[in-house]
Design a protein that fits this description.
9 strands, two-stranded antiparallel sheet, alpha/beta, 7-stranded mixed β-sheet, 2 domains, Isopropylmalate Dehydrogenase
Length: 275
């Protein structure tokens, strides 16, 4: 399906326990390349041994013979595509700044390409969107110390996965982190936390991330009014703190916590008030 843009907004909602307030960030992660491309070679296999010899031949660098190998492809095509998506997203949703996150100081040809493309595209959006760049390890520290300095972050695949979880931690965790995977003409929406089979049928899990993923879907479909109503309903139920799951209570052992269905029903009841 080539859903190349993974969009993971993180936003503070009153009532969700967090060390921070008023966080409003969007992580845009390239979804198709980088170390997640799945090009790997198992240790001590004949093909891996041959590959190691070839790499040593052309790079003049020694690799231990019992190594496993992963290949990290980053193309100009995919870099242009995801970075343009980030700038256009910022324009569409009236965001002010795009920060390209990389490790080009070490990976000069892969991350270096991503950064060069970011700088080239930033020229096209000069005067419309502020552009910054940040090395990924420093970005992790800056997000913990000064998260309000950032707006839209755009990253290659691996860094995007890691930093999006860090950002979710700023607003209370993966239970309130929605996600979208967007391509040309199609999209799939899902909670960032993914599946949790051990909770199947227990009526226990916080539904917020999945419902907020529905908000992203409505916005993608152009149903902005419906999206705003649904997000408002979620926000009000969480803020009230009465019909919420155990993880949204001040104490996780609170006996007044409700189940997945009951919290969803409370959100539906709020929606009906707006009709």
């Amino acid at each position: 399906m080539d859903l190349y843009a993974c969009v993971r907004p993180v936003k503070s909602y009153p009532g969700v326990k967090s060390h921070y307030r008023d966080i409003d960030l969007v992580v845009i992660r390239e979804n198709t390349e980088d170390l997640y491309a799945g090009i790997e070679f198992e240790e001590e296999k004949p093909l891996t041994q041959r590959l190691i010899r070839e790499i040593e031949k052309y790079s003049q660098k020694r690799i231990r013979p019992d190594s496993a190998i992963s290949i990290k492809p980053i193309s100009r095509f995919a870099s242009i595509r995801i970075l343009r998506f980030a700038f256009e997203y910022a324009l569409k949703f009236k965001r002010k700044k795009v920060t390209a996150v990389h490790k080009a100081n070490i990976m000069k040809f892969t991350d270096g390409l991503f950064l060069r493309v970011a700088r080239e595209l930033a020229e096209e959006y000069s005067g419309k969107i502020i552009f910054e760049e940040a090395i990924v390890d420093n970005m992790a520290m800056q997000l913990v110390q000064r998260p309000h300095n950032y707006d839209v972050l755009v990253l290659p695949n691996l860094y995007g996965d890691i930093i999006s979880d860090l950002c979710a931690g700023l607003v209370g965790g993966l239970g309130v982190a929605p996600g979208a995977n967007i391509g040309d003409g199609m999209a799939v929406f899902e909670a960032v936390h993914g599946a949790a089979p051990k909770y199947t049928g227990l009526n226990k899990v916080n539904p917020t991330a999945l419902i907020l993923s529905g908000v992203l879907m409505l916005r993608y479909m152009g149903e902005s009014e419906a999206a705003d109503r649904l997000e408002k309903a979620v926000e009000e139920v969480i803020s009230e703190g009465k019909f919420v799951t155990y993880d949204l209570k001040p104490q996780r052992e609170d006996p007044t916590a409700v189940g997945t269905q009951e919290m969803a029903d409370a959100i539906i009841a709020r929606l009906k008030r707006y009709n």
